[in-house]
Design goal:
The protein has 18 helices and two strands. A two-stranded antiparallel sheet has the order 1-2. Helix 1 packs antiparallel against helix 2, helix 2 packs antiparallel against helix 5 and helix 4 packs antiparallel against helix 6.
Amino acid sequence: MDKLSLINTIGTFAVFVSLLLAFFLFTVHTNNKLGNRLLAFHFILIAIDLSGFFIYKYTAHFLNIEIFRWTLSLLTMPLFYLYALSICFTNFTLRPKHLLHGIPFTVINIIFIPRFYAVNSTEKLGLIEQLSTTPERIVMHFLGELQFVFYIVAIFLLLHKYKKLYLENYTNPSTANYKWLFQITIVFLIAHSFVIIKELLQYSPYKNAFIWANVIVGSVALSVLCWFVLKALYNPSLFRGIDASLPLVKDIIPIEVNNKYVALIQDHVMQQSISTKIGELKKYMADKEPFLEASLSIQELATKINMPMRDVSILINHHMGQHFFDFVNEYRIKKAMTILKDPTKKDYTVQEIFYEVGFNSKSSFNTAFKKYSGQTPTEYKYNTISTS
């Protein structure tokens, strides 16, 4: 099999897998339909882009379609960014302002109307040949790379905000959505680096290396898509989000200006004894053990103790110097340590214990346990038995 045939074969498989993923996302039952649809359209655009490995044989007489296919790549990263928003935040909806993400795609196509779409076939052929070698093509690639970098940075900033909100307001140790988006963004970044190398080779005298680079890029794309398939099979519900309207504590507590605090809010938490409120909160946690609920959130805890969520957030995240996530997990670990020391429960497995105290992941339980005690649960249990 020659190199071109190999590229065609890899491209065909990659397009098939992309469309298969899109079909899966359109049909799978999930609460996050908007996120699934955005990701499905993202995969459809990837399929259209990857079809460039073989579709040129069929679009040679439809050059307007071929150029339009090129420009569609300017919509792939905006769609992925919107998908990330929909996965992170349960209250995300598409609004007219999100159409702004399509401006580069729209502008490029408007420019192409007199420059390409409206000219005759002979001129189109000449322009396509020029586009592959002239500065215009280089500028197009530069703008595409600039857009890619912009959205990658935007997604990492989004994940940074999401993680802060999560730690301050939720306790469920399962952060699958954050890990998924972080992984997929890193994978996109690595895969795209191969595309950049391939494009640079296009302007070098090493044409044979450019052909092999296409083989490598196609293979990387196919591998990434297969990884997506495995992820989709193991995570068909595609994750839970958080409420984007939740404020970060730094946005609702007094801020420091010239080393002096300027009061921005006046409420009963600030007016009453902070130590008394903290004491009441700790007593409730110890007596009622609300931390045993795996999905406990700061809103639910605030409702249980009849205190505004904003006040509870300030108490824990600011005055106690802990994230809500760590505050609750500390109680869970203390409970687990009590169980591990209880001779009547010596036959309990680690899995039984972490479920009982509110965790739903063994790895999260082990990480939290070691962070609090300096030992793994197994080590703690062994040392407790040895000293008793």
